[in-house]
């Protein structure tokens, strides 16, 4: 097992402390839209095991999962792809403040990426905003049920093409993007957190 950085020396080891890296508007979105610290650490631990350590967060928001993973698992490299320019910019600012090197952010739609360049994947129900009218990050982009279906199928197909041993963590997912070749290996009691390994 990799050695963790000692938390006592990490001033960003709680959600409240971490959220102070961002402006108030972004802090207010945290509870609903950004991965909690404990979940990010658990997921990053699972996804950074073994030889293959390029971890992609599909819909990385302001970078919280990637940045927490990079702080605690320096031997892995974390990548985040985010469609919203503003959130991508906040992720870069937070990376500069934290001075972590093993994290890279990409601005764009995940469908523009070659997912073959990554080993393991994290997914915090990024496409759900297309179904949920209630609590959206903003009104800057187009939302639709057909986009939810398109993105979920696209991701499912891409995950299906990954080699045996590929690791996946989902959080709050409806499961539509998880191919049935991925075996569930762990889940939280409330089933919001699930980890899988491809057979
Ligand atoms: C629930 S947030 C999770 C943020 C981050 N993964 C975390 O855990 O802190 C989902 C993010 O996915 C992004 N997203 C949704 N669809 C996307 C797509 N097709 N390509 C890239 N980003 C997308 C949204 O803009 C949003 O920032």
UniProtKB/TrEMBL annotation:
Gene3D superfamilies: Vaccinia Virus protein VP39 (3.40.50.150). Residues 52-117 form the Methyltransferase domain. InterPro entries: Methyltranfer_dom, SAM-dependent_MTases_sf. This is Methyltransferase domain-containing protein. CDD domains: AdoMet_MTases. It comes from Chitinophaga oryziterrae. SUPFAM superfamilies: S-adenosyl-L-methionine-dependent methyltransferases. The keyword Manganese does not apply. It comes from the Bacteria. Pfam families: Methyltransf_31. GO terms for biological process: methylation. Keywords: Methyltransferase, Transferase.
């Amino acid at each position: 097992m990799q050695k963790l950085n000692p938390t006592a020396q990490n001033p960003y080891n709680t959600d409240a402390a971490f959220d102070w890296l961002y402006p108030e508007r972004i802090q207010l979105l945290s509870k609903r839209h950004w991965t909690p610290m404990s979940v990010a650490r658990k997921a990053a631990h699972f996804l950074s095991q073994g030889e293959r350590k390029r971890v992609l967060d599909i819909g990385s928001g302001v970078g919280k999962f990637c940045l927490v993973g990079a702080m605690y698992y320096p031997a892995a490299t974390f990548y985040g792809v985010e469609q919203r320019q503003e959130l991508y910019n906040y992720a870069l600012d937070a990376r500069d403040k934290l001075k972590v090197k093993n994290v890279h952010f990409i601005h764009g739609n995940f469908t523009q990426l070659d997912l073959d360049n990554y080993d393991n994947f994290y997914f915090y129900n990024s496409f759900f905003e297309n179904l949920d009218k209630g609590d959206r990050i903003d009104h800057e982009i187009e939302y639709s049920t057909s986009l939810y279906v398109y993105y979920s199928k696209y991701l499912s197909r891409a995950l299906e093409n990954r080699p045996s041993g590929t690791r996946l963590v989902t959080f709050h997912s409806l499961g539509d993007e998880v191919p049935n070749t991925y075996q569930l290996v762990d889940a939280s009691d409330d089933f919001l957190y699930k980890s899988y390994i491809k057979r």
